[in-house]
Amino acid sequence: MQHDPTRELLWMFVKRIVEEVFADETGASRLQQVGLFTLIYIMQGDPPVTAARIAELTRQSQSQIHRQLQKLLDLNLVERKQTVNKHGRGRALELTIKHTKETERLLKAIGEAGSGRK
Predict the structure, then answer these.
(1) Cβ proximity of 69 and 95 under 8 Å
(2) pLDDT tens by residue, 53-104
(3) Quick one: three-class SS letters along the chain?
(4) Phi, psi of 30 (to 5 degrees)
(5) Spelled out in words, what is the top-level CATH class assigned to the domain 5-112?
Protein backbone atom coordinates (compact mmCIF):
# COMPACT_ATOMS: atom_id res chain seq x y z
CA MET A 1 0.00 0.00 0.00
CA GLN A 2 1.32 3.40 -0.97
CA HIS A 3 1.99 6.10 1.67
CA ASP A 4 -0.90 8.58 1.76
CA PRO A 5 -0.07 11.79 3.67
CA THR A 6 -3.70 12.96 3.71
CA ARG A 7 -4.71 9.85 5.65
CA GLU A 8 -1.80 10.47 8.00
CA LEU A 9 -3.05 14.03 8.56
CA LEU A 10 -6.60 12.90 9.31
CA TRP A 11 -5.27 10.22 11.67
CA MET A 12 -3.25 12.84 13.59
CA PHE A 13 -6.53 14.56 14.44
CA VAL A 14 -8.76 11.52 14.95
CA LYS A 15 -6.18 9.82 17.18
CA ARG A 16 -6.63 12.58 19.77
CA ILE A 17 -10.38 11.94 19.87
CA VAL A 18 -9.87 8.20 20.30
CA GLU A 19 -7.16 8.54 22.96
CA GLU A 20 -8.67 11.35 25.07
CA VAL A 21 -11.58 9.86 26.96
CA PHE A 22 -13.84 12.14 28.99
CA ALA A 23 -15.32 10.93 32.28
CA ASP A 24 -18.32 8.62 31.80
CA GLU A 25 -17.91 8.76 28.02
CA THR A 26 -18.95 5.86 25.84
CA GLY A 27 -17.27 4.55 22.72
CA ALA A 28 -20.37 5.62 20.80
CA SER A 29 -19.87 9.19 21.97
CA ARG A 30 -16.26 9.18 20.73
CA LEU A 31 -17.43 7.76 17.42
CA GLN A 32 -19.93 10.64 17.16
CA GLN A 33 -17.05 13.06 17.76
CA VAL A 34 -15.02 11.43 14.98
CA GLY A 35 -18.01 11.79 12.64
CA LEU A 36 -18.58 15.42 13.60
CA PHE A 37 -14.88 16.24 13.26
CA THR A 38 -14.78 14.59 9.83
CA LEU A 39 -17.78 16.61 8.65
CA ILE A 40 -16.19 19.87 9.81
CA TYR A 41 -12.89 18.87 8.17
CA ILE A 42 -14.37 18.11 4.75
CA MET A 43 -16.99 20.89 4.73
CA GLN A 44 -14.58 23.76 5.47
CA GLY A 45 -14.81 26.50 2.90
CA ASP A 46 -17.66 28.42 1.42
CA PRO A 47 -20.28 28.49 2.83
CA PRO A 48 -18.82 28.46 6.34
CA VAL A 49 -19.39 25.40 8.53
CA THR A 50 -21.74 26.16 11.42
CA ALA A 51 -23.43 23.97 14.02
CA ALA A 52 -26.79 24.91 12.49
CA ARG A 53 -25.65 23.79 9.04
CA ILE A 54 -24.41 20.46 10.42
CA ALA A 55 -27.64 19.96 12.40
CA GLU A 56 -29.68 20.59 9.26
CA LEU A 57 -27.51 18.25 7.17
CA THR A 58 -27.54 15.40 9.71
CA ARG A 59 -31.11 15.96 10.94
CA GLN A 60 -29.85 16.19 14.51
CA SER A 61 -30.87 18.85 17.00
CA GLN A 62 -28.48 21.73 17.50
CA SER A 63 -28.17 20.72 21.16
CA GLN A 64 -26.94 17.24 20.09
CA ILE A 65 -24.40 18.84 17.77
CA HIS A 66 -23.29 21.31 20.45
CA ARG A 67 -22.79 18.55 23.02
CA GLN A 68 -20.29 16.71 20.80
CA LEU A 69 -18.83 19.95 19.46
CA GLN A 70 -17.95 21.07 22.98
CA LYS A 71 -15.80 17.97 23.38
CA LEU A 72 -13.92 18.79 20.16
CA LEU A 73 -13.41 22.33 21.44
CA ASP A 74 -12.13 20.96 24.77
CA LEU A 75 -9.68 18.72 22.88
CA ASN A 76 -8.48 21.84 21.04
CA LEU A 77 -9.23 20.25 17.64
CA VAL A 78 -11.82 22.77 16.49
CA GLU A 79 -12.18 26.49 16.94
CA ARG A 80 -15.06 28.91 16.48
CA LYS A 81 -14.76 32.26 14.76
CA GLN A 82 -17.42 34.88 14.26
CA THR A 83 -18.61 35.29 10.70
CA VAL A 84 -21.60 36.76 8.87
CA ASN A 85 -24.59 34.42 8.83
CA LYS A 86 -25.92 32.87 5.61
CA HIS A 87 -28.40 35.72 5.19
CA GLY A 88 -25.66 38.33 5.45
CA ARG A 89 -27.43 40.25 8.21
CA GLY A 90 -26.28 38.77 11.49
CA ARG A 91 -23.47 36.79 13.04
CA ALA A 92 -22.78 33.07 13.15
CA LEU A 93 -19.98 30.99 14.63
CA GLU A 94 -17.90 29.35 11.91
CA LEU A 95 -16.25 26.05 12.81
CA THR A 96 -12.72 25.38 11.57
CA ILE A 97 -10.06 22.80 12.24
CA LYS A 98 -7.36 24.01 14.61
CA HIS A 99 -3.95 23.01 13.32
CA THR A 100 -0.85 22.20 15.33
CA LYS A 101 2.74 22.71 14.17
CA GLU A 102 2.82 19.04 13.13
CA THR A 103 -0.36 19.22 11.06
CA GLU A 104 0.77 22.49 9.45
CA ARG A 105 4.07 20.83 8.40
CA LEU A 106 2.22 17.85 6.99
CA LEU A 107 -0.22 20.10 5.10
CA LYS A 108 2.72 22.00 3.61
CA ALA A 109 4.35 18.72 2.54
CA ILE A 110 1.08 17.52 1.00
CA GLY A 111 0.77 20.79 -0.93
CA GLU A 112 4.33 20.58 -2.17
CA ALA A 113 3.90 16.94 -3.21
CA GLY A 114 0.72 17.82 -5.09
CA SER A 115 2.42 20.66 -6.94
CA GLY A 116 5.46 18.55 -7.82
CA ARG A 117 7.83 20.72 -5.73
CA LYS A 118 10.20 19.37 -3.13
Answers:
(1) yes
(2) 999 999 999 999 999 999 999 999 999 998 877 767 778 899 999 988 888 8
(3) CCCCHHHHHHHHHHHHHHHCCCCCCCHHHHHHHHHHHHHHHHHCCCCCCCHHHHHHHHCCCHHHHHHHHHHHHHCCCEEEEEEECCCCCCEEEEEEECCCHHHHHHHHHHHHHHHCCC
(4) -65, -35
(5) mainly alpha
